Amino acid sequence: MRELLVKSFQFALRVTDPARRVEDEAQRIGPPATAVLAVGKAAGPMLAGLERAGLRLPGFGVTRYGHGLQLAHYELLEAGHPVPDAASLRAADRALELARSLEPADHLLVLVSGGGSALWCAPWGLELEELQDLNRALLASGAGIGEINAVRKHLSRIKGGRLAQATRARVTALLVSDVPGDDVSAVASGPTAPDPTTFADALAVLERYRIDSPAARAHLERGAAGGLLETPKPGDPLFARVTNRILLANADLLRAVAGFWIKEGWPAHVLSDRFEGEARELARFHAALVQSSRTHGFPYQPPFVLISGGEAAVAVHGAGRGGRNQTFLAWLAYFLGLKGVWALAADSDGIDGNSPAAGAILRPDTLARAAELRLDLRAHLDRDDSNGFFDALGDTIVTGPTANNLNDLRLLLVEP
What we know:
With 416 residues, the chain is of the alpha/beta class. It has 2 domains: 17-248, Glycerate kinase, MOFRL-like N-terminal domain (Rossmann fold, 3-Layer(aba) Sandwich); 251-414, MOFRL domain (glycerate kinase, domain 1, 3-Layer(aba) Sandwich). Helix content is 40%, strand content 16%. The protein is built from 16 helices and 12 strands. The strands form 2 sheets. A 6-stranded parallel beta sheet has the order 3-2-1-4-5-6, with helices on both faces. The protein has a 6-stranded mixed beta sheet with strand order 7-8-12-9-10-11, sandwiched between helices.
C-alpha cells in the first residue's frame, strides 16, 4: 500500500506539470508578449514551457536554491527561501528595473508561483537582516499565509501590486497557486494584483502574534498614520491594463489523485482544497471523520479514500525537524491511536518545513512499530520533531525539489 500511495502522489505531480500548462497557454496570450519575468519554485518549468512554445523573450527567472534547471534561452537565478537573502534582493531590483524600462506599447508576461514572496524581497523601511529576522518570526508564529503576506506586502517595493505599478506596459500574469482559495493577491504576495490589506492590518498581525521588530513596527505605524503610499487597491485604474490568470491550483492536484484512486477501485472523496489552521486541529478533524465512518458508516461507508488540500500551520516551539505535513500525520496517529490508517501527507514542492522530506507515510501499525523501537510519539510532537519520528520508522517520503508548488496533499485510506 505504501508504494501505491507514493505512486498516486507522483502521478498527480505529472498531471499538473507547469511546463505543459504554460506551453498550452502561451499560444493564447495576446497581444504578443515582449518581455518576461518568472518567480517562484515553478519558475524553471514555467520558463521551459515558454521555450517549448517557441517564445524567446528578454527577461529572466528566479527560483529557490536547488530548484534550478538548465534552460536553452532563459537565465534562471537562485535565491533564498523561505527566508530571503541578498540574491533575493538583487533579483527583485533587477525585475523592477526591467519593468520600469518598458513602454506603454510593450506587454510584460509574469510567471508567478509559490515561494515568490521570499525570492523577490525588495525591503522597504528596514534592512535585509531585519527583514530576515522578521520572516523567521512570522513563519514560526503559526500565523496564516494571508496574515504573513499582509506584513510582507507593506515592507516591500515589489509585492502587493507594486510590480504592476512600476511599469507602463500591459501586464499578463500566469499563476501556479499555492494558497487556499487561489487568491491572486496572495500567490507570491501578489506582485501584479490589487492588495485589499493595509498598513494597519499588517501592524495588527505583529500585535496579534507578539512579534518584536522595531524597524518594521516603526515603518508600519508611519504607513498606518498616512505617511506612506499604500499598496494599489482593488478598483485602482492601473489594473485596467493587468490580467491575472490562475493556470494551476491545489484543486487540480486533488482531482488528479482522486482520479488515480478511482481507477484503482476505491471510492474517493475530496473534502476541500481550502483547509487552513493548526496541523494538530486539522488532524483531529480528519481523525473524527475516520472514527465516525468506521463506527456509524457516516459521512462515508468504508472502504474509501479521503483527500484534502490547503495549507496547515505549525506554531513552532521546539528545536526538532519537520513540517506541517509530517506534523499532521504525527497528530493523526496520536488521535487515532492503535486503530490507525494508511495515510500520506506531503508538500507538492518536495520540501516539508525544515526537513529534507516532502512528507511521510502513516501505516495502521505505526504506533505498534514505534513502541517496538521505543519511540515516544508525544515527546517528538512536543519538541516539533515529526521528521525524526517518521525517519526512525523509515516512513519519510524524500522526492527532492519537484519543480512544482500546488500546496499540500493529504490522503487517508479507510478500510472496512
